[in-house]
Each structure stands twice: as structure tokens, then as C-alpha cells.
Amino acid sequence: MINELIKLIQSQDDDLKKLLELLETQYKMIMSKDVFGLEGLVDKINECGKRIAQDEVKRRNIIGEESIIEIVNKSDNQELIKSYNDIKLTLNEVIFKKETNDVLMKQQIIFNNKILSVINPSREIKTYNSYGNLSR
């Protein structure tokens, strides 16, 4: 069971590293405003996410209800401990990069919406309310 778990964790770590590379590419495309490149990257990111999820299902089938942390702590297998620590580091990097990309995308969307509202302002007739303020 331990050897199978080690292989599975290493496989999942490889998939996470591929996802990290894709997220780094996504970051570069966001910064260069390559919209069409971003659109093409979506399928690759989804495919990588599916592989990671499949590995996770296999891992849960192997260990059952027991926590992976408990298994690693009980085990004296240095290779398992190293693999687990490696995947934790990779996962933290992926989470950080994903959050960074999400924030950048939201900023770009807000910026684009503001530019669009300047270029094409609201055509509604503006009236004053009882307080003397413009209402829409």
C-alpha cells in the first residue's frame, strides 16, 4: 500500500507541476493581454485538473477513510514523507499562482468595464430627485 501511495502522490505532484506551468503561462498572457491565448489555455487547464482529480479519487480508494497526514506520520518511510512534503509545496505554489491570476483577471475586467462606460456612457435621461441629486 505504501509503495502504491508513493507512486500515486508522485504522479499527482507531476500533474500539479504541469498545472503550475500552465498557470505561469496564463499569468504571462494576462500581463500581455493575450485574450485569444487565454481562451486556448482553458481546455489545457481543465484537462490537467481532471487528471489531478482522478489521482485524488485513486488515492482515496487506496487509503479509505484514514487521513493521509495520519498515514504519513505513522509511516517510517522516508520516501513517502518526502513525496508528501513535495506535493504540499507544489500545491501551495499552485494555490498562490491561481489566486494571483484570479485577482489580475478581476482587475482587468473592472478596468475594461470602466473604459467601456467612458466610451459608451449611459443614454438614460437623468433627473434630479427631491434632494437635488441626480438619479438614474
TrEMBL record:
InterPro entries: FlgN-like, FlgN-like_sf
Key words, A-Z: Bacterial flagellum biogenesis, Cell projection, Cilium, Flagellum
Top-rank lineage group of the source organism: Bacteria
Protein name, per record: Flagellar protein FlgN
Organism: Clostridium gelidum
